[in-house]
Structure formats: structure tokens, C-alpha cells
């Protein structure tokens, strides 16, 4: 009995700690983010009306091939399911009673809060908080999410690099003005994966470089307490090493997660191709769309607005304007953002509605 009380006390402390971490994403910030999202949407709509004209927009909508629109929705759902599967697998290993319905709910809440917070910063804390409601330890939840993130990023980079090599000539010609940015961006992604792997197997290599940098930031007063930061980093690396050892011991599960992440990546990239075909475009293959979309995703990670607003739309226009038929690019941007931004927010918000059992609890 005392052991159960101890566990309950630890659980309560973890929830309180996580609530403090989630606190910055308060109601005022969320309301501001929602207003900003609506302003961006309304601004995009009025821009389309001004540039294309109402008559043109109506004509384009009549000409849309809606079987490709449905295909885009299917790709989006596949992307969501794969995301949930890769969260569910490690959680199921740690907690055999974990249900997929709960994993899917947590995953969709991540979609919601990633899209309404700058740099997708709100997703993981809210997911971990939601998992505490089903008696999951915060450390275990963050471990599962870290594992999913590492495998997803690795699959994303590997699949994209392979497709770029296959379609390099097309990619180089289309991206001639941005090719160096693409090379630097993808190289940084590969470097990030290498650093993550090193953190899992060679702690001293990471601390050798990070400790002097943190101390320097403390001396120039960018960090308030450099020693505390070093201690936190040390603990984080130790926790990650445990996760890495867990991954090494579960090779079969990691392989399954990697394959699922590949499917997830291609499903997400295929959305742009479905939009491309929906507006009657032909001549460009899915494999040629993928590296351009991957580069756009890379740009979006550096935009500090909720859901990379404005930057995503502007990037899509710059990269795909020469690929889409004249007069269809603006409607294509709107459809693409509905798939990749507005629908995840709307569907994710549905999972905030408490059930009867949830209200009682």
C-alpha cells in the first residue's frame, strides 16, 4: 500500500511540474495565436480575390477535379494514423494496457498545439500532460515522444535525400537560386541526427562542446544560471541515453517505426501532389514534387509564427509558382494550407471536447 501511495505522490508531483512547464501557453497567448491565424486566413482570401477576381475563383473551383481532393484527404488521414502508430508503439511497450484510441487522441492534440504555437513548441508538453491523465509517467511519455521524433526525422531525411539524388537534375534546375540553401539545410538536419546519436552513445563528446558554450553564454549574461543549465543538460543526456539503450534493445520495434515513418513522410508530401493534380496540372511527377516540398518544410521550421503562417504561404508561392498552371497557384496555396494547417487545428480541437466519462473524472 505504501508503494502505491509513493507512486501516486510521484505522479502528482510530475503533473504539477508539467503544469508549470505548460503555463507559458496560457489562454491569452492562445487567443492571440488564434486571432493571428484568422487574420492570415482572411488576408490570404482577400489577396486571392484582389489578384484573381471572384469570377476567376468560382470558375477554378468548378474545374477542380474533386477525386484528387479526396485523395489529398486520404493522404492526410494516413499521415495522422502513422503519427499515432509511432507514438503508440513505445507507449504500448511501457504500458501494455495503452489503447490506440488514446494514442490517436494524444497525437491529434499534438497536431493542434503544434500548429497554434510558434516553432511547434506547444505540442509535446500538452501531449505529456494528456498522458498523465491515464497514469503515464511524464519521463516515459517524453521518452516515447523523443523516440518517435528521432525515428521520424531520420526517415524524413533519408527518404528525401534518396529522392533528391534520383531527381537531382530537375531539383537543381528548379532550385538553382536556392540550391545552396537546400544543401546547407539538409546538411544541418543530418548533423542534428548525428549529434542525437552521439548523445546516446558518446556523452563526453557532446559535453566537451556544449559545456564551454553554456559557460560563455553565462559570462555574457544571455543565460542567468549557466551551472544550472549544465546540470539540466547533463540530466537530459543521461535520460536520453536510457531511451537510446531502450531503442537498441527493441530493434524490431524501431524498424517497424522507421517503415511507418517513411509511409508517413510520403503521405504528407503527396498532399502537395494531390493539390497539383486537383487543379488540372500535369507534367511533374510525385517524385519531383517531394524534394521541393521537403525544402519548403525546412524553411517553415524557421518561421516564428503559429503554423509558420505567412512564411509557409510565401514559400509555397516562390517554390511552386513555376510548376503550377498560371492562375491556379493562389487557390492551390489555400487548399494546401487547409490540408496541412487548418484541418489539423479543427480536427485536433474536437479532441478537446470532454466526453461524459471525462467530465465525471
Structure notes:
It is a single chain. The protein has helices at 2-22, 27-52, 54-63, 66-94, 100-116, 123-132, 138-166, 168-174, 179-201, 203-219, 226-249, 251-278, 286-300, 311-320, 329-350, 356-360. It has 361 residues and is mainly α. It has one domain (14-360). It is globular.
Give a short summary of the structure.
The protein has 16 helices and no strands. With 361 residues, the chain is mainly alpha-helical.
List keywords for this structure.
0% strand; 361 residues; mainly alpha; 16 helices
Distance between the termini: 23 Å
Helix % is over 70%
The 3D shape can be described as: globular
Mean pLDDT: 82
Number of DSSP strands? Answer: 0
Residues in β-strands, percent: under 5%
The major pleated sheet works out as: none
**Structural class, from helix and strand content?**
mainly alpha
List the helices and strands and how they pair.
Blueprint: H1 2-22, H2 27-52, H3 54-63, H4 66-94, H5 100-116, H6 123-132, H7 138-166, H8 168-174, H9 179-201, H10 203-219, H11 226-249, H12 251-278, H13 286-300, H14 311-320, H15 329-350, H16 356-360
Amino acid at each position: 500500500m505504501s508503494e502505491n501511495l509513493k507512486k501516486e505522490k510521484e505522479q502528482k508531483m510530475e503533473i504539477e511540474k508539467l503544469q508549470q512547464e505548460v503555463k507559458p501557453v496560457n489562454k491569452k497567448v492562445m487567443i492571440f495565436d488564434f486571432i493571428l491565424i484568422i487574420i492570415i486566413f482572411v488576408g490570404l482570401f482577400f489577396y486571392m480575390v484582389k489578384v484573381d477576381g471572384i469570377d476567376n475563383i468560382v470558375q477554378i473551383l468548378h474545374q477542380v477535379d474533386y477525386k484528387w481532393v479526396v485523395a489529398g484527404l486520404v493522404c492526410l488521414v494516413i499521415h495522422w494514423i502513422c503519427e499515432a502508430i509511432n507514438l503508440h508503439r513505445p507507449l504500448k511497450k511501457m504500458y501494455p494496457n495503452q489503447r490506440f484510441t488514446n494514442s490517436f487522441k494524444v497525437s491529434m492534440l499534438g497536431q493542434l498545439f503544434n500548429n497554434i504555437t510558434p516553432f511547434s513548441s506547444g505540442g509535446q508538453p500538452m501531449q505529456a500532460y494528456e498522458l498523465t491523465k491515464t497514469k503515464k509517467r511524464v519521463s516515459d511519455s517524453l521518452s516515447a515522444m523523443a523516440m518517435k521524433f528521432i525515428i521520424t526525422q531520420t526517415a524524413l531525411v533519408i527518404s528525401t535525400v534518396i529522392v533528391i539524388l534520383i531527381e537531382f537534375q530537375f531539383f537543381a534546375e528548379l532550385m538553382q537560386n536556392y540550391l545552396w540553401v537546400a544543401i546547407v539545410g539538409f546538411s544541418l538536419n543530418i548533423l542534428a541526427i548525428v549529434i542525437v546519436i552521439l548523445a546516446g552513445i558518446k556523452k563526453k563528446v557532446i559535453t566537451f562542446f556544449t559545456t564551454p558554450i553554456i559557460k560563455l553564454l553565462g559570462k555574457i549574461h544571455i543565460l542567468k544560471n549557466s551551472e544550472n543549465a549544465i546540470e539540466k543538460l547533463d540530466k537530459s543526456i543521461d535520460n536520453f541515453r536510457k531511451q537510446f539503450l531502450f531503442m537498441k534493445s527493441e530493434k524490431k520495434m524501431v524498424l517497424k517505426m522507421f517503415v511507418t515513418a517513411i509511409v508517413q513522410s510520403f503521405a504528407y508530401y503527396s498532399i502537395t501532389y494531390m493539390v497539383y493534380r486537383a487543379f488540372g496540372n500535369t507534367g511533374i511527377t510525385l517524385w519531383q514534387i517531394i524534394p521541393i516540398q521537403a525544402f519548403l518544410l525546412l524553411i517553415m521550421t524557421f518561421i516564428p509564427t503559429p503554423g509558420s503562417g505567412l512564411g509557409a504561404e510565401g514559400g509555397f508561392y516562390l517554390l511552386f509558382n513555376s510548376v503550377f498552371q498560371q492562375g491556379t497557384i493562389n487557390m492551390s496555396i489555400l487548399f494546401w494550407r487547409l490540408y496541412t494547417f487548418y484541418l489539423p487545428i479543427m480536427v485536433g480541437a474536437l479532441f478537446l471536447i470532454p466526453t461524459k466519462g471525462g467530465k465525471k473524472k
